[in-house]
Design a protein that fits this description.
Rossmann fold, alpha/beta, 179 residues, 6 helices, five-stranded parallel beta sheet
Length: 179
């Protein structure tokens, strides 16, 4: 059996979905017998690789770096999973949307709520340009599967991965909803 190349990443979110992934506990050992974990916050790979079979994307798309990375991921990955409510609906991260555009959000975070040195960082490259709205992943790239939950429980994550691994991790054109 050929090993599946698995990646995870997160955009605008809290890393709760990755924490839930780690709560798979000893099943992670079984998973490592079937997959090569090739990219994510748990490994020291700097560039998203070619030929990824499955990626779990946590978080909403909030800035231009997220958009670029999402397109790179889609080009290099067979099966894309929106991982958790922020990736599926923009959830908590999307709460900034009714406040207005990026200037309002940055002013609130860096000026109004600052305890020390209020001011929006202006050094080139220090902040990626915020999008006007935080959006779910499927509004930027095609997504093959949605795994809702805030965060999804480990049992749902396991069910999804077992389903994808059993199917050879090929895109199905279907939306799997576990819940």
């Amino acid at each position: 059996m050929e090993r599946v190349r698995l990646a995870t990443t997160w955009f605008g979110g809290c890393s709760g979905c990755h924490m839930s992934f780690l709560d798979l506990d000893e099943w992670i050992v079984d998973l490592t017998a079937k997959v090569d974990y090739v990219y994510g916050p748990l490994v020291d790979t700097k560039e998203y690789p070619e030929g990824v079979d499955v990626v779990l994307i946590e978080g909403a798309i909030c800035n231009t770096e997220h958009v670029e990375m999402a397109h790179l991921i889609r080009r290099r990955t067979k099966t894309v999973v929106s991982f958790g409510d922020c990736a599926v609906t923009s959830n908590v991260v999307g709460m900034r949307n009714p406040l207005g555009g990026p200037e309002v959000v940055l002013n609130r975070a860096y000026v109004e709520l600052a305890d020390v040195n209020p001011g929006i960082p202006v050094a080139p490259g220090i902040l990626p340009r915020l999008l006007d709205r935080a959006v779910p992943v499927h509004q930027v790239i095609p997504v093959d599967h949605f795994l809702p939950g805030c965060p999804p429980c480990p049992e749902r994550i396991r069910m999804l991965l077992e389903s994808l691994l059993g199917a050879g991790a090929a895109p199905t054109g279907r939306l799997l909803k576990f819940g």
